[in-house]
Specification:
Layout: E1 3-8, H1 13-24, E2 31-38, E3 42-49, H2 52-61, E4 68-74, E5 89-90, E6 96-104, H3 107-116, H4 127-144, H5 153-161, E7 166-174, E8 181-186, E9 191-194, E10 199-202, E11 214-217, E12 222-227, E13 230-235, E14 240-241, E15 246-247, H6 263-269, H7 271-279, E16 283-284, E17 289-290, H8 299-303, E18 307-312, H9 314-331, E19 335-339, H10 340-343, E20 354-360, H11 366-377, E21 382-386, H12 392-396, E22 399-402, H13 415-435, H14 440-475, E23 480-485, H15 490-504, E24 507-512, E25 529-533, H16 541-559, E26 563-569, E27 581-585, H17 593-612
Parallel strand pairs: 18-19, 18-20, 20-21, 21-22, 23-24, 23-25, 25-26, 26-27
Antiparallel strand pairs: 1-4, 1-10, 2-3, 2-4, 5-6, 6-7, 7-8, 8-12, 9-10, 9-11, 11-15, 12-13, 13-14, 16-17
GO molecular function: carbohydrate derivative binding; glutamine-fructose-6-phosphate transaminase (isomerizing) activity
Domain SIS: 298-437, 471-619
Subcellular location: Cytoplasm
Length: 629
Amino acid sequence: MCGIVGYIGARPAVPVIMDGLRRLEYRGYDSAGIALGGADTGLSIRRASGKLRNLESSLSLNPLQGDYGIGHTRWATHGRPSETNAHPHRDCTGSLVVVHNGIVENYCELQDQLKAKGHFFLTETDTEIIAHLIEQEYLDLRERNDGDAAPSLEKAVSQAVKKLTGAFAIGVISTDDPGKLVAARSGPPAVVGFGDGEYFLASDVPGILQYTRDIVFLQDGDVAVLTRSGISFSDFHGKPLKRSPQHITWDPIQAEKNGYAHFMLKEIYEQPRAVRDTLRGRISAASGHIELPGLDLSHDEIVHAERILIASCGTSWHAGLVGKFLLERMVRIPVEVDYASEFRYRRPIMRSRDIGLLISQSGETADTLAAQLEMIAGDIPTLSICNVVDAALTRKARGSITTNAGPEIGVASTKAFTAQIAALLTLSLYFAQCRKTMPQEAVQSILRELEVLPKAMEEALRTSAPVCARLAKIFSNATDVLFLGRGIHYPIALEGALKLKEISYIHAEGYPAGEMKHGPNALIDETLPVVCLATKDGDDPDSVLKYEKTLSNIQEVTARGGRVIAIVVEGDTAVSSLVEHTITIPRASEALLPILETVPLQLLAYFIAVEKGCDVDQPRNLAKSVTVE
């Protein structure tokens, strides 16, 4: 889950690489480093522990020169965060350096083999193994001569990566083959970009979007060779490949803060746009038509499906739980929701008429990809809901729905989550139409609400932000917070708790409101804030029943001295008469309330974290994309 940036071209390489690393620092920030090559300078390296600013300080004191190079921001998996363990890593001779995102699972075995051949190691990382392995391949190729007295860097890299077990995206430069940058991918993401006489490498699009929008997403088993004259592609066996760039439409300014104090706040306020873009072109309330061209499931497969298996991680798992409520209610089909990290370890039972559904912001989450492979091995079609076009998850899926939320920089996911729920709503309505489990007028009624949902989200942002800012001053010293919800609102309670713990480091727990008597009541005293999702759709009897039961739970809390913050729909006076604090959102149908409820919970977590002085965008011990297990 580290950040990689590489550049080769006419301009000075340091500013380009450092600018890219700044845009990718959300992928890892416990150390950073840069290596440059040049005709006159050879190979030069700077590394620093801690955040990127420490490397910037080092470079200001000891500048580097070069017209090609690689840089890295690290999120530690092997070896503690330190300058020694920071990337890039050298081989024994110091003529070759590697940056790496991923995990080499057989590094101990490889290390023993390399030590037996005279290699010595200076770090605690698995990445250093790759540098030495490429060095050894150079030596072996020269010894064999193999028709090539001066082996190319890409040939040595291709030979080396075939011996690696695990997941990796790497960038390599060497003085033995100067003026060249070689990249290889098996698992974690890597992209290359085409400019005017200059070429780029990155582990994520925002790292190079300032310089080019013409991008190739490397596929598993790809090797890319970047020189001043262009980019060539081959597989790990040296077979040439044709890869055509696609034009990315994201505006680079989307990856900037645009005047907001933090990326997270900017992305919270981008949610109406993200949901609007996710729905655009897919729904029409006037015609009642839903269009999902990327789904690639036949009508018969949808009609005869017997079960949906959802697997995802973190915030996306909460979206999957919302999807369970939507699909079971609208489509009348059984749905199971698993943490992707647990799915393959329980030997899941899959049947021929099951459909797999994977949900991920990045589409590169290792556990979610592993769950997808388990489903594919079980011979069931898989669908993906993903925010990144051509991510690994979407390439392996039969069909996909792209959420169109745009780049999400803050580690704590916000706009990706609400866009995922919007996609799940669309999918549920589409399946309901195919299976005829909802009257068409009911489908069109929800479609009409979906079309105006972004405006309702804007209203929720406008009205709840000042309230949440005020409540943050009151509750920022809390040590524990309980979040309660019933039915489809329970996953939102889980998500609200996750957001608070992620960025404020306050222990928070989401719980089904109906389970209060089975344990959580013991926690309640006058110091415990309890956030209750007490919204209702007045036209839905089931929603009203859940609301009335939740009122009873609120009374249980207040009777024991708990301090209640209730999320309610506008015009609700029953709850406000019972509780200390309320946050109001617009009225909506039961199926749309989860999206609107999410907005104030995100804002509450954000303002509490700011009040506590926490690093909102880069919370400790977390990284944005978990591309290793």
